[in-house]
Amino acid sequence: MNIQMYPYDEPWKNSDDGDACELLAYYQPQYNHATGLIVGAEALARMIHPKRGLIPPSEFIASMEETGQITSLDLAIFEKVCVLQRKCLDEHLAMVPISINVSRKNLFVEDFVDRMEVIRKKYDVPVKYLRVELTESAAEDSVDRVIAFLSKLHALGYIVEMDDFGSGYSSLNIFKNVDFDIIKLDLCFLQGNLNGGKAGTIVSSIVRMCQWLGLPVIAEGVEDIFQADFMKSIGCEYIQGYFYSKPLPESNFLQKLSGDAIGAIVPQLSLIKTMDAGSFWSPESQETLIFSNYVGAAAIFEWTDEKIELLRLNEKYVRELGMNMTEKELISGDPTASMDEVNKTKYKDMLRRAVESADEQECETWRIVRSQCCGEERVCIRSTVRMIGKSDISTLFYVSIRNITAEKARFTDLVDTERRFKAASEQANIYFWEYTVATKEMRPCFRCMRDLGLPPLVINYPEPAIEAGIFPPEVADMYRDWHRQIAEGVEHLEAIIPLTVGRVPFHVRYTTEFDSMGNPVKAYGSATLVVDADK
Ligand code: C2E
Ligand code: CA
Ligand code: CA
């Protein structure tokens, strides 16, 4: 006699009261909300009791986990899925990958994956039509077990989904340690309004983070068009929920499959090759440490459809902007919102250049910064950007910034002062220069340069002026002595000195400037033409 060895028992068939249950798999399809294509399905266990009818998993999963019967249940559902996929293959029906739920208890069943393989081989179903869901909490409990379990499944070619993300502690370390292929985000765990509410912010941060990790996200528990549209608007188009379909008995599911067009789940974004996305986002990684402590003021932002959104910034970034801003005031904000049209265009031009050149680009922009405590202020920021990731709809940038408002103000002041001096000296017939005590450098005014042919910087002053005959030989020693006196701290010097070969009398004056310690730093010289009143 040929005895068929099943890889599992069927405990639901031998109840004490004689009411044997029947186990069924229901199938809930998953859709791409952007295209309307069906991209997969999840198998969900149902028990049919002869008297009570359909029993939901909430009534039997927990107790089966306690008794250990969950191993048989998960394998039985897996077998039903394999049977269905075999049927679709044989009858050339439309197919999508179907995922099964594996209880965390089965992580501790050493030969669980081997037993799955026995079943899969029996029906000869390619792994691409099968997926495995593991809950996030399973990953939290026993990271080592999960890693070992996943590597077995991955070696066989399975796609593994993290189920119920957001229900547990949701530590980002899970991403670093465990190599899931798809994330399932259950909206039921998030109370509150998605659009504009706190829940919406949380969901969109999770989705974006997953995107930059190259992980597709399936939103579960999507019950209405508003939720579906919101998820699509934040870049998560894979939807599972009552809005599209309730879990269906096999025949209804097959009907739906034959009527709907089929698509696939693909990650949409990719980071530049040299970056390890997992560690980049993890709060404990080396990259984060460097980002937070060793680089200057820096941020990561995303550029989508002409809109910029800051995703991550370090403390120095917050400080560089000044105004006692908080990270909260900055994050998610669009930095270009604080710029006028001219500066906005300048900034976006830089971004375009950065994309085209795939290299670092720089620009300076003025912005109006507003903060809760300090009100409003105009600041000038020098930004250096580099593109670090790109997709069809968005680009990821790294930016380092420097607040150059004070520098700019000094420069504007200087230009202003120089302009005023120029006008004044032209009118007053005055020549002036600046002498630096420590370096013996002299910086002449524009008239000195124009009329006497001096360069903008004269070194070893006053020797070149004496050599050139501006100060004639008979006054040379006296003029040299003036510079010694200045170095010794004399505050003021003046005399009528005949200058240039024409020996024209000029009133020459020096005023010394001292530092806080009382040491002479600079002396300001001037020469005014002496006008003889008698002539
Ligand atoms: P799950 O894996 O998170 O499955 C999704 C659950 O959400 C299903 O409940 C599904 O019917 C329900 N659902 C789907 N769309 C919506 C929606 O728009 N709104 C709401 N409120 N709910 C929606 P179900 O079928 O009652 O299953 C409950 C849980 O039981 C599953 O949660 C899973 O953890 C467990 N389970 C089901 N089948 C199996 C199985 O074969 N093995 C194991 N280990 N666990 C299973
Ligand atoms: Ca599931
Ligand atoms: Ca789930």
Computed Rg: 38 Å
- The CATH superfamily of the largest domain is known as EAL domain
Instruction: Give me the CATH architecture of the largest domain, please.
Output: Alpha-Beta Barrel
Distance between the termini: 142 Å
Question: Can you walk through the features of this model?
Answer:
The protein is α/β, with parallel strands linked by helices. It folds into three domains: 24-258, Alpha-Beta Barrel (TIM Barrel), CATH 3.20.20; 295-407, PAS domain (Beta-Lactamase, 2-Layer Sandwich), CATH 3.30.450; 429-529, Beta-Lactamase, CATH 3.30.450.20. It has 18 helices and 20 strands. It has helices at residues 61-67, 70-90, 112-123, 136-141, 143-156, 173-177, 198-212, 225-233, 250-259, 277-281, 286-294, 315-321, 327-330, 341-357, 405-428, 446-452, 463-467, 473-488; strands at residues 22-32, 38-49, 53-55, 98-101, 130-135, 159-165, 182-186, 217-220, 238-239, 270-271, 298-304, 307-313, 361-371, 375-390, 394-403, 430-436, 441-444, 492-499, 504-514, 520-529. The strands form three sheets. It has an eight-stranded mixed beta barrel with strand order 1-2-4-5-6-7-8-9, surrounded by five helices. Strands 10, 11, 12, 13, 14 and 15 form a six-stranded antiparallel beta sheet that branches. Strand 6 (159-165), helix 6 (173-177) and strand 7 form a beta-alpha-beta unit. Helix 2 (70-90) runs parallel beside helix 3 (112-123). The mean pLDDT is 85. The chain binds ligand C2E and calcium ion (CA) (2 copies). One calcium ion binds at residues 163-164, 184, 186, 220. One calcium ion (CA) binds at residues 163-164, 184, 186, 220.
